[in-house]
């Protein structure tokens, strides 16, 4: 049976489920990202955000359901072909060898090169530009392993940028970053005008940068829509077990979430 998708859908998950050792991690996930759309995945720790992303960048395979990338089933892509279509910045990246920053970012060009092909002027220009965009232009010779957590995160983003894919998958991309670099990274991603699917913890950052949101709880999507539709006090209380006041920022027009201190917590 052939499933026809809308031409504007960059990636779509249809009834995706995932089980491991008899435990259901994801159940009947229906999700899509339109071309050029910034979509956020929200939910508490353990809700399935990272597992969902792993299905898309193919670290894990769905137990049930199907995933389509540009109307083609994800499993039909060869690995190198897939690396030309999507890039990922994930939480548990393990770099075992002591590459310098420049070398690691240059690896993002690998999908576009033959096995023994050297970098060219275009590759070098892309690396230089990406390092400047993430504020690490003076650190090309630094050992990656010597960097702070936030600096490593910015290097991995630069590598994803030079990969020149139209779809970016991000698992907690602002992890380890101070607020200045959190805002800078998300603004940079927005300016790239690519399709983005990102797991996020900070609800206000999600409201500021995302076009649409999916809220997960225990492996199930409980709601989806615009930030105004998803980030409502009753939904946040149900999913996160917190009291909030949700307002609209007078300047940005975006949803703003104020957290209420429980009565039993002293000021």
UniProtKB/TrEMBL annotation:
Keywords: ATP-binding, Nucleotide-binding, Transport. One of its GO terms (molecular function) is ATP binding. SMART domains: AAA (SM00382). InterPro entries: AAA+_ATPase, ABC_transporter-like_ATP-bd, ABC_transporter-like_CS, P-loop_NTPase. Pfam families: ABC_tran. Residues 11-243 form the ABC transporter domain. PANTHER family: ABC TRANSPORTER ATP-BINDING PROTEIN, HEMIN IMPORT ATP-BINDING PROTEIN HMUV. This is ABC transporter ATP-binding protein. It comes from Brevibacillus laterosporus.
